[in-house]
């Protein structure tokens, strides 16, 4: 792709580094920004810089937050004896949109994936195990995507919790094998949470 401007080329390159954005889409977005009033571009740039510089991760659940403790963890109406384990913030948003879950969350920050060099030590697993050992949690819902990496991570956490007084469940397989939670429709995801099954049963099923 030939560019008449080095500034345009640099902007397109940086935009194309975003996931799912190819060079042509990046060019279209950059040209769109050039057509907008200058203040609109400045507002976008300011929002991104402010996000990058000031965003926090909740000290309890590792969800993205504007404060030290996120709104979900700070809500006294949430059931603190139930924790849903998810991969990232997108899964929290997907489950919250179902309005079928009233417990807390624990964001791992990824899944165990030897092929990508991601091990248990790279995820927020140790703090999760510590939470369970503290004794407040009565049920742990493993809500990772039904992929090989998700199942591996679920099983690793399950083995780490052997001997602990906690019920371990997993979302029902209304979610197709290989699907990511964030792409599931709200009704299907909501039913999968309501109809969750003991983790031991999911192992036997596999």
UniProtKB/TrEMBL annotation:
PROSITE patterns named in the record: RECR (PS01300), TOPRIM (PS50880)
Zinc finger (C4-type): 58-73
Superkingdom of the source species: Bacteria
Keywords: DNA damage, DNA recombination, DNA repair, Metal-binding, Zinc, Zinc-finger
Pfam families linked: RecR_C (PF21175), RecR_HhH (PF21176), RecR_ZnF (PF02132), Toprim_4 (PF13662)
Keyword 4Fe-4S: no
Domain Toprim: 81-176
InterPro entries documented for this protein: DNA_Rcmb_RecR (IPR000093), Rcmb_RecR (IPR023627), Rcmb_RecR_Znf (IPR015967), TOPRIM_dom (IPR006171), TOPRIM_RecR (IPR034137)
Described purpose of this protein according to its UniProt entry: May play a role in DNA repair. It seems to be involved in an RecBC-independent recombinational process of DNA repair. It may act with RecF and RecO.
Family recorded in the similarity comment: Belongs to the RecR family.
Listed name of the protein: Recombination protein RecR
Organism of derivation: Flagellimonas okinawensis
Native organism taxonomy: Bacteria, Pseudomonadati, Bacteroidota, Flavobacteriia, Flavobacteriales
